[in-house]
């Protein structure tokens, strides 16, 4: 008696379709890498051209005034960090409060309503938040705390950027907290712990990797924000170094936007336009470092259940 082995290879048409899908996905991944490399190379070539046209001492000149040949990196880096710090002070408590409530306290019906509403906030155009910072946050918040606050100031810009990144931090943190197994919560309740103790001592430590990654991603988003800081912090042609958030200043993105608007991009000294690419390269390095740090934090503190 002869036995025939069944054909387990499957439908040839289905295999061809799977191969086509695989090739499309591979092409998309390769294209993404190629585009990223092309962007970096274009920034790098113009940044090198910028450095060859100036005296390196101009990078530590008094203030950032590119059309006058003064390219003080300290000014735009310090101002970027100040705006980012203010944004994180605003976004971290609000984002974590929203994430904790949605994950641990909100009923399912309430969560279904609040979660989309929170994410709608992320869809507000940044130019709208920039004008909101200029016309409402400055007179009603900043000047009530510091009367001598200038119309254009980094504090209002930082608060608006913080509002912008609240949904990002809240969404990432809430997803991390929801991923904690219910068995841990039930074990805590079984030992007599209250909900707040379970949240603070069980859920948050278990989700710390995702929460920290959310903070880093939020900071990366704040560093790269353009329109809010260009409008609220002052989109002027330059800025002196200051550590006061009540004064106007130029962040890296704001400096690029200010210099590249209209025909002004060709005005000033010869290296002014090339400085755009140098600052863009610095910004790329900043965001790359933050993203790498986020990945390392996730791998270092990730809990597997």
What does this structure look like?
The structure is a single chain. With 305 residues, the protein is mainly α. It has a single domain, classed as MetI-like (MetI-like fold, Orthogonal Bundle), CATH 1.10.3720. It is 71% helix and 1% strand. The protein is built from eleven helices and two strands. Strands 1-2 form a two-stranded antiparallel ribbon. Helix 2 packs parallel to helix 5 and helix 8 packs antiparallel against helix 11. The longest helix is centred in the first third of the chain and has 42 residues. The relative contact order is 0.15.
CATH superfamily: MetI-like
Q: Strand order, main sheet: write it out.
A: 1-2
> What's the architecture, going by CATH?
Orthogonal Bundle
Note the beta-strand portion: under 5%
Which CATH class applies here? Mainly Alpha
The span between the termini is 51 Å
**Class derived from helix and strand content:** mainly alpha
* CATH fold-type name: MetI-like fold
Find the count of extended strands (DSSP E, 2+ residues).
Answer: 2
What count of helical segments does DSSP give? 11
**Low-confidence parts:** none
Shape: globular
Percent range of helical residues: over 70%
Task: Report the C-alpha radius of gyration, rounded.
Answer: 25 Å
Largest sheet: 2 strands, antiparallel
Secondary structure layout plus pairing:
Layout: H1 12-53, E1 64-65, E2 70-71, H2 73-105, H3 108-121, H4 126-145, H5 154-178, H6 182-190, H7 195-206, H8 208-224, H9 227-232, H10 252-260, H11 272-301
Antiparallel strand pairs: 1-2
